[in-house]
Specification:
Elements: H1 4-8, E1 14-15, H2 21-26, H3 38-43, H4 45-58, E2 62-64, H5 72-77, H6 82-105, E3 117-122, H7 125-129, H8 143-159, E4 164-170, H9 173-186, E5 192-196, H10 210-216, E6 223-229, H11 236-246, E7 250-254, E8 260-262, E9 267-269, H12 274-286, E10 291-292, H13 300-310
Parallel strand pairs: 1-10, 2-3, 3-4, 4-5, 5-6, 6-7, 7-10
Antiparallel strand pairs: 8-9
């Protein structure tokens, strides 16, 4: 297991992976379910391992686990008890580690590469609601209530031995601070990145300026990187510029492909092209991001195009 504090405490570019759920859909999975990609943990876990492996081959330095939508509450709605829910969450970490270890076992894959990390995905409270709340963030919950929600899942994921946590698509400042405080007070040896979802060039989905939310995380040493994900590419450069002014931490970004999502019909519109995504990423690098990947609708081909130039920085 690598020391994530050491890995993130330098300026070497890191290639993040791309989407899990939409890649599983491309491979024939039906994710029309409140559990989203976590459903595949139950039905076809081998596919998740395969996607992780393909992202490593494409050039990713980090695998983000298929636990974004996984929570005790969400699993309980499906009649899955706490023991089995814990097993499934930990399986998400195990699958990513198995893919990483299989990739790294081939000496040819090690040339010019760091040993990849596994980041356990911690989705926002709104992801559990499965109603698009992660793109609004107005939960009506206190910081303490959000800590109480995230605590058991984080404990389960950390027990499986990931390198760090990926607290992602966070729509509001109160949830980000709740996660950072939870780590500081109860999981002092864990490292994490915290990444926000944003609605425009300056503000979180909930409306708080990104710069203010990023600044609020500055005192928390366990937060090794901050940034933006699950956001339209056109907003990324100005958001990163604002984040760079507010923080001395590593900046990361992994935006959507550029296609537009309709939460009413749950469909995507538009098109994307790997080279165009990689070309846009040059702007994000110039704006300060040193950890770059993709979120919804991005593919191993996008990551391959991205890694082709980012690793040469």
């Amino acid at each position: 297991m690598q020391d994530p504090f050491a890995v993130f405490d330098n300026t070497t570019p890191i290639v993040l992976d791309g989407a899990m759920a939409s890649e599983l859909e491309r491979r024939g999975c039906d994710l029309n379910d409140a559990l989203w990609s976590a459903r595949v943990l139950i039905e076809q876990p081998q596919l998740i391992r395969d996607v992780h492996y393909d992202y490593f081959v494409a050039g990713a330095d980090v695998a983000t686990t298929a636990s974004y939508q996984a929570s005790f509450t969400g699993f309980a709605r499906r009649g899955i008890d706490e023991v089995e829910a814990t097993r499934l969450m930990q399986l998400s970490v195990q699958l990513a580690c198995e893919a990483r270890d299989a990739f790294w076992a081939d000496a040819h894959n090690r040339v010019g590469r760091m040993r990849p990390l596994v980041a356990a995905s911690v989705g926002p409270y709104g992801a559990m609601l499965a109603d698009g709340s992660e793109y609004r963030g107005h939960y009506g919950l206190s910081e303490q209530q959000l800590m109480d929600f995230h605590r058991p899942r984080i404990a389960a994921l950390l027990a499986a031995g990931p390198d760090l946590l990926a607290c992602e698509t966070i729509p509001c400042q109160v949830e980000a601070v709740a996660l950072a405080r939870l780590l500081q007070e109860e999981f002092p040896h864990a490292a994490a990145w915290i990444s926000f979802s944003c609605r425009d060039d300056a503000n979180l989905s909930e409306g708080t300026p990104l710069a203010a939310a990023i600044a609020a995380l500055e005192p928390f040493a366990q937060v090794v990187a901050v940034g933006v994900n699950c956001t339209a590419p056109r907003h990324i450069a100005p958001l990163l510029q604002a984040a760079a002014q507010a923080s001395g931490k590593r900046l990361l970004t992994y935006p959507n492909s550029g296609e537009a999502y309709d939460p009413v019909t749950k469909t995507w519109h538009g098109s994307s092209e790997p080279q165009a995504f990689a070309d846009a990423a040059r702007q994000w690098r110039a704006a300060g991001a040193s950890c770059i990947g993709g979120c919804c609708r991005t593919t191993p081909e996008d990551i391959r195009a991205l890694a082709g130039w980012l690793r040469g920085q």
